[in-house]
Amino acid sequence: MKNLDYQQIDPQALATPTPTPPPRPLPEHKPRRARRKWEVFPGKNRFCCDGRVIVARQCGVLPLTLGLIVLTSGLFFIFDCPFLVEHLTGCIPVIGGVLFVFVIISLLQTSFTDPGILPRATPEEAADIEKQIDNPTGSSSSYRPPPRTKEVVINQQVVKLKYCFTCKIFRPPRTSHCSLCDNCVERFDHHCPWVGNCVGKRNYRFFYTFIVSLSFLTAFIFGCVTTHLALRSQGGNGLVFALQASPASALELVVCFFSVWSILGLSGFHTYLVATNLTTNEDIKGSWSGKSGNEDVGNPYSYNSITKNCCSVLCGPMPPSLIDRRGFVPSDDSVQTSPVEIELSAAKNDTNMVGRAVTSG
Amino acid sequence: MPFHNLQELRHSASLATKVFIQRDYSDGTICKFLTKFPAELDSRIERSLFEETVKTLNCYYAEAEKIGSQSYLEGCLACATAYIIFLCMETRYEKILKKISMYIQEQNEKIYAPRGLLLTDPIERGMRVIEISIFEDSGSTSSSSTGSSPSSATAQ
């Protein structure tokens, strides 16, 4: 009977002309269009394509990175490949092409993917946490209270969780606040200026693919260009002649020579991190290496097996983005949208309802 | 008089307070929530029902984050295609998240709304907390308003 009442109220309120207005959102909300959540995002990120693409505020040297890669690869395909295809094999541009595509795609994905940003606490959550934090001294007006920490035991090891004053949450383990992006990022590795974004839980595998494929690409181009110049300078022509015949190769040689060492080194370092399930942040701070004088530490997140660590970091399930960029900002969160109006119209239509119930029943 | 459906709850009740179930990090960084029963819910719902809900949610999340043959396959395939399939395909995690929201909706309709409570999907709170809203029945004249929230926000 009660359900029937509710079902009958709405159509009558809309259909019959009553002096009370039908239930609808408050007038102030009417002219304002619904905004997407990315438009009110508190961090320092920028968004493109209506929230589909996220970039850090300072895109750093991403254009430079892209430019160098495209330029060097372009010169390689235009100037070196024809010679090498003619003298060696046609596979060279194919391999180069595949590597180039991998590099560009993984670079763009690293730059434009949400690294694992944690949304800030809602006001009620923040208030709830504040309540739970003890403040025994009580006189906190003159100085800022010491950083709040919470301890948890993970895998028989004590891990301290810090309170983030900006996001108003206790940071989960392995989460760190990036000051450049002004966000807490899960499994924070580092903020990479070359890529123009933080590297965290969600885009670490893209970053790793990027640096590994880039090291293959630079080594490949370096090798091919060297072969090209070597072939050209054969037959008594000399290196100077070869360089004069193909000046672009000189530029490629220089770029690749300086890049290959640093990128190979970086790949090697990150391979070590993946194998031991560490982040750059933890490695630099020496969280688990016992530098702080504590002998009983070891990485509590490691599976103690290289293959399992690699698989969990690189082939693990892809976690979802927590910031819901394209969702709509909800209108007023209060539950009392129109209880008064419903009750009023219920009272007015009381007599009608009885009549209709009889006729429809 | 208990509420009969969610619509009724939202339209004729006022929000009294919210309880937050925090994450349990004892097993590492996987998504898991504490099953400790909050004191504010003592008079509103049976402990076993609450624990059942949280344990089921924990199972769902554990399944989503499980590293097994299916996730390896997904990961290797994704790597081979330069991760482009992530743009086209729905990942296993996302599929399980949909199951979780349906489960939460079902729990709300069957168990929590009739008791004047409302669960919020953790994904809407950045997977940090399970937010439980406690409603006061403003329509009735029962004394439930004095019973709940013994030590909550209103004091401060």
UniProtKB/TrEMBL annotation, chain A:
It is a multi-pass membrane protein. Pfam families: DHHC (PF01529). GO terms for molecular function: protein-cysteine S-palmitoyltransferase activity. It comes from the Eukaryota. The DHHC domain is required for palmitoyltransferase activity. Residues 1-34 are annotated as: Disordered. GO terms for cellular component: endoplasmic reticulum; Golgi apparatus; membrane. It is an enzyme of class 2 (transferase). Keywords: Acyltransferase, Membrane, Transferase, Transmembrane, Transmembrane helix. It is found in: Membrane. The chain crosses the membrane at residues 61-79, 85-108, 206-231, 251-275. Residues 1-10 have a biased composition (Polar residues). Residues 160-285 form the Palmitoyltransferase DHHC domain. This is Palmitoyltransferase. Belongs to the DHHC palmitoyltransferase family. GO terms for biological process: protein targeting to membrane. The keyword Membrane applies. It catalyses: L-cysteinyl-[protein] + hexadecanoyl-CoA = S-hexadecanoyl-L-cysteinyl-[protein] + CoA. Its EC number is 2.3.1.225.
TrEMBL record, chain B:
One of its GO terms (cellular component) is Golgi membrane. It is a lipid-anchor. Residues 19-131 form the Golgin subfamily A member 7/ERF4 domain. GO terms for biological process: protein targeting to membrane. Coiled coil: none annotated. Keywords: Membrane. Belongs to the ERF4 family. This is Golgin A7 family member B. It comes from Cyprinus carpio carpio.
